[in-house]
Amino acid sequence: MQRISSSHSFGESNLHMQFTPKKRRRVFLDPVVRDECRKCFLQTSRELGIVLHAAEFGPDHAHIFFSNWRRYPISELAQRFKGASSRWLRQRVPERISKHTKTKAFWSGGYFYETVGSVTAKAREFYIRRCQAKHWIGIEYPEDPRGKDDQTQLANWFG
User: Residue 15 in contact with residue 66, Cβ under 8 Å?
Assistant: First the structure.
C-alpha cells in the first residue's frame, strides 16, 4: 500500500468490505459467477479511481479490499459496488444466477466494512486472498512469503 498525496493532505486509506447475496445463497460456487463478479469489482474500482487489491469469495459471500477511497463515504462505496455487480451479473450471466435469485435483489441489504491501517493492510490482503480457502476444501494455496512467524500471527488474528 502507498500513501497518497493531494494538495492539502497526505495519507493512506484502506478498506475491507464484505457483501452477502440475498438469503446467503451459495451463488459463488459457480466459478463463472465469481469471475464475472471479480471483473465488475475491478471495473467499478477503476471508474471510481480507487485501487482494488483483492476480491475473493466464499460460497455465499464476497470480500473486497481496496485503497485510495477517501473521497467517498463507505455507504456510497457499498451502494456502487453492490449495484454495479448486481446489474453486471444479471446482464452477463443471467442463466447462472437465476436459480439463486427469486427476487430483484441480488445482495442482502447490509454489508460489513472495516478500515485498515498500514500496519495491518498486508495482513488483511493476505487474509482476503488466501484465507478464504476454508470455504474451498481441497484447494492448495502457496505459503505466505513473509515466513512462519507471520503466518502464526495471522492465524492468531484471523483464526
Answer: yes
**120, three cell numbers:** 495491518
Judge whether 42 lies within some domain.
Answer: yes
Residue 16 CA from chain centroid, whole number: 7
Assign 67 to helix, strand or coil: strand
Q: What pLDDT sits at residue 123? A: 76
Whether 31 shows a pLDDT value over 60: the answer reads yes
Rounded CA-CA distance 141/133 in Å is 8
CATH of the domain at 22: 3.30.70.1290
79 found inside a domain: yes
| Domain assignment present for 131 | no
Is residue 95, in this structure, part of any structural domain at all?
A: yes
Q: What residues form DSSP beta bridges with 121?
A: none
Alpha helix positions (H), the chain: 31-48, 74-92, 94-97, 118-130, 148-158
The side-by-side arrangement of strands in the sheet containing 51-58 is 51-58, 61-67, 14-19, 112-116
Give the number of domains in the chain: 1
Rounded Cα gap, residues 53 and 44, in angstroms: 13
6 C-beta neighbours (distance < 10 Å), count? 9
User: What's the pLDDT score for residue 145?
Assistant: 46
Domain that holds residue 44: 11-121
